[in-house]
C-alpha cells in the first residue's frame, strides 16, 4: 500500500504562475483542515494549481474526474471477487483519506447527489468516512485534504451543489489571468514568442467579450497554449488560430467569421 501511494506523489514542480494570493490561502486552508472548492471556467488553471499545491505541500494527489454515472461505490470502494473469495478495494476517496493524500474531485456537480453526500462526514470536524458495506468507520489521516472543482457557468438549477455541501468548503475563484500574466503563461507553456503570445491573448480577450452574446464560453488559457504550440511548431499563426481557437468553440458560421476577423486584425 505504501508503494501504491508513492505513485501519486508529485515529484517535479508543476509550473504555476500565481495570479493573486491563492497559494497562501490554499496553504492556510490546508493547515486549518478546511476543504477547498475551486470555481472557474474551463482551462483557466484549476487543475494545474492543485498539482502545484500538492507538490508544494509534499502530499500525494489523487484526482477523480466525476461523471453522472458515478456511484458512491466508485469513489468509496467495493468488494471484489477474486480466487480467494471477496476482497475489499478502497475507492480513490477512501484511499486518499486512509493514506493522507490530497483528493481532487474534478467537476463534482456532475456526480449524483448520493455521491456528493458521502463527502459530508469527511468535510466537517468529524473527518470520518463510514464504509458501510465493509463495516468500517475510517478516520481520515491528518494529512488528508479534499479539493473539489466546479464551473459555476454550467449548472442548471437542478444540478447545482446543495448548500449543505457548499458550506463545508472554503472557495477560491479562478478566472483567466490579466493580460501580462496570461502572456507569460502562454509563452512559457507553448514556447511561442512573447510577441505572438501577446497577440493570442488579445484575440482571446475579444472573444471573451462575446460570452453570452453567441458564445457559451470564452477562449481559455488552455486554447491559447494549443494555438501557441502550433505556432511554435511552425504552423502559420492564422491557421493555428483557426484550428485551436475558433473552430472548437463555435459551429455558427457568423460567429466563426467574426472570430476569424479578430484573428486577422492581429496576425
Ligand atoms: N496560472 C497558471 N500558471 C501556469 N499555467 C497555467 C495557469 N493557468 C492556466 N495554465 C495553463 O493552462 C492549462 C489549462 O489549465 P488547467 O488544466 O489547470 O485548467 P482547468 O481550470 O483545470 O480546466 P477544466 O475545468 O477544464 O479542468 C494548463 O495546462 C496550464 O498549462
Ligand atoms: Mg481541470
UniProtKB/TrEMBL annotation:
Keywords: ATP-binding, Nucleotide-binding. InterPro entries: ATPase_dyneun-rel_AAA (IPR011704), CbbQ/NirQ/NorQ/GpvN (IPR050764), CbbQ_C (IPR013615), P-loop_NTPase (IPR027417). It holds the Pfam family AAA_5. GO terms for molecular function: ATP binding; ATP hydrolysis activity. Residues 35-169 form the ATPase dynein-related AAA domain. Gene3D superfamilies: P-loop containing nucleotide triphosphate hydrolases. Residues 182-264 form the CbbQ/NirQ/NorQ C-terminal domain. It comes from the Bacteria. Belongs to the CbbQ/NirQ/NorQ/GpvN family. This is Nitric oxide reductase NorQ protein. It comes from Rhodovulum adriaticum (Rhodopseudomonas adriatica). The lineage of its organism: Bacteria, Pseudomonadati, Pseudomonadota, Alphaproteobacteria, Rhodobacterales.
